[in-house]
């Protein structure tokens, strides 16, 4: 079947409705083009707060907006829910699973990234990652059900394993998860159990590199480490995970630091969260095969300075799927970091270049504007590294946390969501309660079969 | 394994944390008993608003409260998340799946009800019912995905089938579902699709009996019918569903009314919601077999006037699992309706009778206090039937709707939830938007395999 939208205007197909795809489509508001936005979920997700859904602090609708609602008032956008099967560069068509074909004059691929287990894909079952709402629900279920199972467990060793939580990878997501899990154990669940003491739970943060938040300046990494330890998180640096199974993980430490000692150690635990690696969407490799473009180690497509695919000026790649450089006049190009402002800026730049191409003008090289980097650790603690014309401003602690909080509320989509998230955070701050401690599927049948 | 809580005080086991179980446990606050509350989900669900989760108006956490949070400050309650395998009346122990055994001195069974397909259990796959949060997510997914699939569908007949929604059963849940679906099609999705007009969707409400809301006085049924039709719902009365499969339903009408005509008709539709029948939890039959008690046609346990099981004064059954009568002095006993106030009152009465038994006093027969009956239909429309000492007060329309709205917010658990639900309703009222239009699992793998 072929759904061809009759059109005299240039047809723009955008794959993905993350930060990159969303901004690309918005940038074309009012432009003389017909846009088809293809997304495999029905919502745009505000991923920086996804860990809050996973840790039962926010309800899913507070950080997700229906994709088609966002474009209700942009009539040149048609939103389609579907999965891309193949990008046919010869026919210049995107093929969806199910047979629908979408011809393009300009294509923006913003399909994002997923978790990577570095070749150990069997680990996924035991250590889910955090990229989608479905992932967040699964992690929420595992966290809350571990405490429930511990309350029923008579065997002390098994109870200890159920009360041991391991987060692998100390990037922003891993740090946020570990800090919040420690808060849940220490405060949120206080007084609710009769057979276990939730405060006896151990939260481990395991990082292969020598410091947490390695994208941050070293001084802020050190502050983050101290704040994590203050919250009760056991941080193991330079520790490589060598095995994950249903009942625990194996960790190899080359140094005898962090309490674990040198050598390979087994940690019995049931709830493991994978925050260690991302890989580009498989569409990246498919696109490279079809166009001869190069992929980097993470499977991202190496793009031209104007974000197009080499030899294919009609195809641009943006966001986490792109391996892009930033070009500042008179300076050597620098890699664009894989953060949401980068994806947004790339999305807008790709659309801007489409308009220039339509008008017969030259495209512009992409320039990334770095406004800084923030990460939260837990209650009253965050680190902030702001880029200003006068040099970097760095701070941490309670003020950094408030800064992080309002920055995230500001960038959330929708007035209602901003109010509800602020309200939930205020109430969580005073009561230590997390109001989304609800598990719809206590047991997941997929896992058993 | 046996988890025996050493105790000199009478041990009360409560199965279920719905309205009945929750109120039974609360009534025993401060009483010299040790309570174990067993629940197979981790939350108490405010079921009267579950249809709002299914129709994307509310987020799940707004109508669900963690069971153990509710009893944090009631130290004589131990909450356990588990599924009951068997009630061992000889050993006076509840056996959980997994092996844990809970000995009781007093047992309250409040395990509730589930959907009944009247022997056609194969229909469940095509026509899910609405009892749990998992059910609500599944119905939300089907409703929203039907519009998405229609937008991609080139074949006119299949598109029509995707835009036909059938709700089976015109009790309160069926009426709420149908009214809300009509509102979604007519208003919420306006302007969001480019290939279909959501307003062309048809919403059918199919009822086997001669009127909607049959528990209401006939005049209010008539008002509800008119309001449904005004909202655009096609109501088919006296229509019996004879078959449900993946692509549609068959309906048999003895009369040639309601547009369908006499005889058996096939209706092509993909999204079918089952609101036609409930059956008591299977624990009811197991209890009847073990005790010799009688079950009614719906599988509910016929209880004594004091809500205990005949011959087993230590076992009470309350809520939807009980077939109970109300005893008013000088009047013949009347059946207790299967509504949440009935379950709450039974829960409190069962606990009151446990306390009387502990104190060596006679138990009291149950007396149901009927404060009336309300049902909403949609925007600005509801019907209310209040019992007052001066006789019934009946009204419908906008004022009834406001009455329904505030009554439900009042009975919701938690200050935060009341505020958020009010806010979401106010915003939905003015914008027609439903803020929880988020589907985590676009495809459900269970269904495909």
Topology of this protein?
The structure is a homodimer of 449-residue chains.
Chain A: E1 11-15, H1 19-27, E2 34-39, E3 43-45, H2 50-54, E4 64-66, H3 67-70, E5 77-81, E6 84-88, E7 93-96, E8 101-103, E9 106-109, E10 113-115, H4 133-152, H5 156-162, E11 164-168, H6 172-188, E12 202-206, H7 218-230, E13 233-236, E14 240-245, E15 248-253, E16 263-268, E17 271-274, E18 278-280, H8 282-291, E19 301-302, E20 308-309, E21 312-317, E22 322-323, E23 325-326, E24 334-335, H9 340-358, E25 372-378, E26 381-388, E27 391-396, H10 398-411, H11 415-431, H12 445-448
Parallel strand pairs in A: 1-2, 1-9, 2-5, 9-21, 11-12, 11-17, 12-13, 19-22
Antiparallel strand pairs in A: 3-4, 6-7, 7-8, 10-18, 14-15, 15-16, 20-21, 23-24, 25-26, 26-27
Helix pairs in contact in A: 1-9, 4-5
Oligomer: homodimer
Which stretches of chain A are poorly predicted, pLDDT < 50 over at least 5 residues?
Answer: 445-449
Structural class of chain A: alpha/beta
Order of strands, widest sheet of chain A: 5-2-1-9-21-20
Q: For the largest interface in this structure, which chains are involved and how many residues does each contribute? A: A-B, 61 and 61 residues
Binned, the helix content of chain A reads 25-40%
Rg of chain A, Å, rounded = 23 Å
């Amino acid at each position: 079947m072929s759904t061809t939208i009759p059109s005299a205007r240039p047809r723009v197909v955008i794959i993905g409705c993350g930060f990159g795809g969303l901004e690309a489509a918005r940038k074309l508001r009012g432009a003389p083009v017909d846009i088809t936005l293809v997304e495999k979920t029905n919502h745009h997700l505000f991923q920086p707060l996804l860990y809050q859904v996973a840790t039962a602090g926010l309800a899913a609708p507070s950080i997700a907006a229906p994709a088609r609602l966002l474009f209700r008032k942009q009539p040149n956008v048609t939103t389609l829910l579907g999965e891309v099967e193949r990008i046919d560069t010869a026919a210049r068509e995107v093929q969806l699973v199910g047979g629908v074909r979408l011809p393009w004059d300009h294509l923006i691929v913003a399909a994002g990234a997923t978790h990577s287990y570095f070749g150990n894909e069997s680990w996924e079952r035991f250590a889910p990652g955090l990229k989608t709402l479905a992932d967040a629900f699964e992690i929420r279920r595992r966290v809350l059900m571990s405490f429930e199972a511990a309350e029923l467990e008579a065997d002390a060793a098994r109870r200890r394993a159920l009360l041991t939580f391991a987060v692998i990878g100390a990037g922003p997501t891993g740090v946020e998860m570990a800090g919040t899990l420690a808060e849940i154990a220490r405060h949120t669940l206080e007084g609710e159990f009769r057979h276990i003491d939730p405060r006896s739970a151990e939260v481990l943060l395991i990082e292969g590199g020598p410091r947490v938040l390695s994208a941050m300046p070293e001084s802020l990494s050190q502050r983050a480490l101290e704040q994590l330890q203050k919250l009760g998180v056991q941080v193991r640096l330079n520790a490589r995970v060598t095995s994950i199974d249903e009942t625990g993980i194996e960790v190899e430490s080359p140094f005898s630091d962090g309490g674990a000692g040198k050598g390979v150690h087994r940690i019995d635990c049931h709830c493991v969260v994978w925050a260690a690696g991302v890989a580009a969407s498989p569409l990246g490799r498919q696109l490279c095969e079809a166009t001869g473009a190069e992929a980097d180690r993470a499977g991202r497509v190496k793009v031209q300075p104007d974000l197009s695919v080499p030899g294919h000026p009609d195809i641009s790649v943006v966001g986490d799927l792109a391996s892009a450089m930033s070009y500042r006049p008179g300076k050597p190009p620098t890699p664009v970091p894989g953060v949401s402002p980068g994806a947004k800026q790339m999305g807008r730049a790709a659309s801007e270049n489409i308009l220039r191409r339509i008008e017969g003008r030259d495209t512009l090289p992409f320039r990334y504007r770095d406004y800084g980097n923030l990460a939260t650790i837990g209650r009253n603690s965050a680190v902030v590294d702001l880029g200003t014309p006068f040099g970097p401003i760095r701070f941490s602690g309670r003020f950094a946390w408030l800064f992080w909080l309002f920055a995230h509320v500001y960038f959330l989509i929708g007035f209602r969501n901003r109010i509800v998230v602020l309200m939930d955070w205020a109430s969580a701050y005073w009561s230590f309660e997390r109001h989304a401690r609800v598990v719809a599927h206590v047991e997941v049948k997929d896992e058993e079969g």
